[in-house]
C-alpha cells in the first residue's frame, strides 16, 4: 500500500481537529435557560373569557364594521401554547387551591388543599422554592388578598385554604418571598384573639411595608430587603378595586393602582443578575364570573392583559432569557358566546353600557332599599349603570318578560336580607347574589349574546399561552401538573426530557 503523503496526512489532521472542535463547541454551548420567568394566572379565565374580551374590544374599536373584527390581547399573539386539563382529586370542576398547587408543584390534590397531598400529610415543594434555591428572586402579585388560595400555593403549605392567618404567617416568616403585593390580608391578627399581627411578623422578617400609590409606583431595589406592598384603596374582601370601577375612579379624577402598575414596580425591584420568578394573578376575574357579571369579567381580563404587556415589554429588552406563561386555573361560570334568543347574532356593543361592577352596584341597591325607591325610580339607576330601560324603541329596551323578571328581582332586593325566602327558583335565578344586580347582568349579557350556566367553577380545558425561552414546553395538550415541570425545565432546574408537552 502506498504510504499517505505527509501533505495529505496534515490535511486530514486539520479536518479531524476542525470537526472535533466544532463538535465540542456545539456540545459546550449552554442550553438557553429562562433567567426571568413570568407566570400569569387569570383566576377563572378559560377560553370563553378570553374570546369574549377579544370580541368586546374588537366591537368597540370597529363599531361600524359589517363583519366581526376580534381584537388581540397582549398574550393572544404568543406563538406557543396549548390546552390543559384542570381536574383535581376531588372533582372535574376543581377549585383554586388544588389547581394552583398542581401548577405550582406538579401534583394533584383535593379541592381546598394547598401544597399537601390527598392525605393531608406530605407537603409539596413549589417551583418558587426551587427558583429561590437557584438564586433567583421571587415575587407574587395578586388583585385579591395576598393570603388567597392562588397566591398561597406559591409560598405556603396548608391542609385548608381557609387558614388565611396561617398562610399569611408562612409567607411573612418564610424565606421564599422577596416581594409580595396587591391586595391585603384577610385576618392579619387571626380569627381568634391574641394572635400576633402579620404586619409585625413581616417587619421582624425584613419586609418593608408600602401602602401608598407614590411609593409603590416608585419602588426601587434599595427601598428594602424585602417588600410587602398593598393597594391603599382596597375594595371588599381586602382585594384591589375591580378594573371597571378603577377606570371610573380614574375618570372621575381619582388615582388607583392597576395590576400593571404593580407588575412594573415588581420588575424594577426584582431585576438582578440571577433573575427572578414572578407570579401575577388576576384573581377577581373569578369573582366576577361567580357573580355572572360579564362586563366586569372582561375588564378584569383586560387588566391582566395590561399586566402581561409590561412583561412583554421587559422581554423585548431580554429576549434570550425571558419566559412568559399566561393561563387560567379553571373556568368559572360556564360562560359562553351565543344565547337562545340571539341565535347566530351577538351585540357586544351593548356591553359598553355597563360601567360598574356588581360589587359597587350592590351598594346602590342597598341605598335603594334604605330609601324605599319605587321600581320606576330604581330603573333610572339601572339605566345609568347597565343601559337597560323601560323606554320604548331603545337598543336595551326591556321586553315584557325581562321587565317581569327584573321586577321580581327588584321586589326581592327591596326586602331586608333576613326576610327573603330563598327556594329552588331563587337559588337558580340569583345564585346567592343580590337579586336586582345579578338579574341586570343576566339580561344585559343575554341581550348581547352571552350567557353563564353556573355560579361556580366548571370543568373546561384551559388555554395556555407561552412566549420566550422554553415556550416550546407548553405546546400541545397536557395536564395542569405539567406546568410545573415545563417551568422547571425552562429554568434549567430539571432535564428537558422530563417535560410532557413537546
Ligand atoms: Zn380559581
Describe this protein's structure.
- This protein has 502 residues and is an alpha/beta fold.
- It contains 18 helices and 14 strands.
- It folds into two domains: 343 residues, 3-Layer(aba) Sandwich (Alkaline Phosphatase, subunit A); 113 residues, no CATH class.
- 41% of the residues lie in helices and 13% in strands.
- The strands form three sheets. It has a ten-stranded mixed sheet, with helices on both faces.
- Helix 8 links the parallel strand 5 and strand 6.
- Helix 2 crosses helix 12 and helix 15 packs antiparallel against helix 17.
- The longest helix has 24 residues.
- The N and C termini lie far apart (53 Å).
- The structure holds zinc ion (ZN).
- The site of zinc ion has 6 residues, from loops.
Salient structural properties:
502 residues; alpha/beta; Alkaline Phosphatase, subunit A; 2 domains; ten-stranded mixed sheet; two-stranded antiparallel ribbon; 13% strand; binds zinc ion
Compact overview of the structure:
With 502 residues, the protein is α/β, with parallel strands linked by helices. It contains 18 helices and 14 strands.
List the helices and strands and how they pair.
Layout: H1 6-28, E1 36-42, H2 47-61, E2 80-85, H3 96-105, H4 127-133, E3 137-142, H5 149-152, H6 164-173, E4 179-182, H7 198-204, E5 207-210, H8 213-217, E6 226-230, H9 243-251, H10 259-270, E7 276-282, H11 284-290, H12 294-317, E8 322-328, E9 331-332, E10 336-337, H13 358-371, H14 375-386, H15 400-413, H16 424-430, H17 435-448, E11 450-451, E12 457-458, E13 462-468, E14 476-479, H18 481-490
Parallel strand pairs: 1-7, 1-8, 2-14, 3-4, 3-7, 4-6, 5-6
Antiparallel strand pairs: 2-13, 8-13, 9-12, 10-11
The structure holds zinc ion.
